[in-house]
Amino acid sequence: MSKANELSASEAARRMAAGTLTSVELVKDCLARIEARDGDVQAWEYIDPAYAIEQAEQADAERASGKSVGPLHGIPVGIKDIIDTADMPTENGSPMFRGRRTNHDALCVAQLRAAGAVILGKTVTTELANIAPSKTRNPHNLGFSPGGSSAGSGAAVGDNQVPLALGTQTGGSVIRPASFNGIYGLKPTLGLIPRAGVLLQSHTLDTVGVYGRSVEDLGLIGDVLSAVDPDDRWSYRGSRGRLSDMVGETPPATPTFAFLETPAWDHAEDDAKAAINGVAERLGAQCRKETLAAPFDEIIDLHATVMAAEDLNYYGAFLEKTPELLSPQITERLEAAKSIRADRYIDALIKRDEINRSLEDLLARYDAVLCLSSAGPAPEGFKTTGSAIFNGLWTYLGVPCVSLPKLIVRGMPMGVQLVGMAGDEGRLLRTAKWLDEFLA
Amino acid sequence: MSKANELSASEAARRMAAGTLTSVELVKDCLARIEARDGDVQAWEYIDPAYAIEQAEQADAERASGKSVGPLHGIPVGIKDIIDTADMPTENGSPMFRGRRTNHDALCVAQLRAAGAVILGKTVTTELANIAPSKTRNPHNLGFSPGGSSAGSGAAVGDNQVPLALGTQTGGSVIRPASFNGIYGLKPTLGLIPRAGVLLQSHTLDTVGVYGRSVEDLGLIGDVLSAVDPDDRWSYRGSRGRLSDMVGETPPATPTFAFLETPAWDHAEDDAKAAINGVAERLGAQCRKETLAAPFDEIIDLHATVMAAEDLNYYGAFLEKTPELLSPQITERLEAAKSIRADRYIDALIKRDEINRSLEDLLARYDAVLCLSSAGPAPEGFKTTGSAIFNGLWTYLGVPCVSLPKLIVRGMPMGVQLVGMAGDEGRLLRTAKWLDEFLA
Fold first, then answer.
1. Residues with Cβ within 8 Å of residue B299, at least 6 apart in sequence
2. Out of A203, A309, A346, whose CB is closest to B310?
3. Chain B partners of A203 at a C-beta cutoff of 8 Å?
4. Which domains does chain A have, with CATH numbers?
């Protein structure tokens, strides 16, 4: 029998509801796994085992008292260390924030607590959720990168140390670690999950996302986290059904997929191309190769322009005041961003709307876009966190993306990415569930 | 007895409803005034008297038939020549667009037609609604500027050539001509009036505004023009009462005013300062001098940054393709905008939200901000269209502004400006009506 730490969050929740599993049992199994592995994987920036067990005991006591409980009652969750927590430090992966504590939870952490979750600890982030690699190792092979910037969250879920974790994506920081660590990841529509209390590097890109051990898990935690933040101009204000309901539905017709190589295709490894082509072939008539009209061909540069300009706006003060506390990688990026002209940035924002209109037209004819989650599996060594070139374009468009751990390339896991219509993660997850079973 | 062209739009509409005035009589009086004066004032870029009378005859016939009619039925309106009309050329004040015709109306023109208005003709705009002066002259003294960029609309209403006209404001292009030409002007909340079919130079600033001969006129045409444009990210989507109802209401308490000198104060002429100080003194305890916290002190530069960067984005292609068709003034502006860094532009957009929050706090305690409509009365000669320094700051904030023609400085008219809460032009107009009568 598998240990509780290997269960999906959904299955653990079902067992707790049935009385066959307690939160303390689950949390202890997670802690034991962490104890055994964290010296190698190094996924956690902060964890206090006694405090985690205390939260689990309280969850079990509340359930035993007959109180009504939330959908994540007693389920442990890992929190990327750029997301504020009232009871643990938040260091943003930077010596500038060493020992930093806030007296408030980020809104998304408060939502998790309100749903009954156990906040297990803080997971390692790359420096300021940017490109310089972190100390975390890939649990599938310790000589390989776990990706970034949500390195610890991806590795911890991938190593069965915790069933759920939060990440954030500005380039490819949710989907890429999902791909490299062999787990399920959802980067939702821009602004679906509130960003208040999360380190801000790019207001038009930064998106809080989630990791889990099944598509069902993504819907479970996605429902808990969706909310409008009236103070955030980019908060998603459209309508949205209950994700858990949609995940459980059988699609009304066999789903269809628009296979997009995307302008990143030339950067993909041959093995990765072969792997995704294999998926397309298995789907047969349900999958057609498509493309999008110009300016889609410029999309990689457009994302880079927006990200660099906004990064410089938010991090420029660090560069001025404490340049010695920044890595060479981020320093070089910020310096380069000084050459970006305002009108080019505006142009990139305007073209986003234009490309989104053609993507909407495409998705009127298909259930989802099918593409690579990453240019290849996790890179060997720790010079980089790997390429985010298959992610930045979708982050730029603000549309929801799911990564399914369905490929093995040269012995390492790699994801299949599905992309949906803004605000329609319900349909996206339903389609993802179908594909997950189809490729099982 | 006054001629019909001297009536306010509201009074003309009442007389038509009562059967004591026809649209043909009104339009003919307007055309006679134009015939007599346009050689001097030069407010019209395009006008076809026969076609105007034809529209008026049709309006009269419709009314006679017993058909239900709209609130502007039979009322002539002048349209700034950067606003598309299906039946007249739209030349954007530039040789690049000479003879340009579109086969559609701008949404705001379609709204006017649906309300029964007679589209009298197209009024002169400065080149591309920017700073280079136009041929139009100030009707109060032909040696003086009418302001810009809505020069023709301001002068035509100021000279009793038409009771209502449309303008647009990116810097000070609605309120400044209102001030210089001695008329009532409303620059509403950003996005209250749809911009589809209007020359775009700055999506975060460009605002369609209106001129009339009374506060009541501003409410009458404002109601007709308010609508959500779902394709415009900056369209105002908040709630709003009926402006005409609010204008007719007695304020529940005697209105109070926050007198803001604003960071533009040092640029105001001494006579202008004395004039607005006189208004504040007459208001006594109802008016208090206030200020706003930093970064309000930077607001003039912040507006300039946003406007220049967006101008370059939209007009940069003209500079590349046909520089010989641009004036030296706009060329110099666009060239200078190339030095604006993207992160500075982003910073300016973020600070806008910050300043708006402190303005909201202020307007929770007052009915309106009181300030100058312009740095002085119309400048003599035609080297510039005058300073817009008292306008750009409010355009940047996207808040509604009214100009009331209540001051005379060195024999020329000048406006008192009231500024309200975003989306609350109803209260602003009610307050403006009160002040208009108080200062009568």
1. B262, B263, B355, B393, B396, B397
2. A346
3. 350
4. 1-293+354-440 (3.90.1300.10)
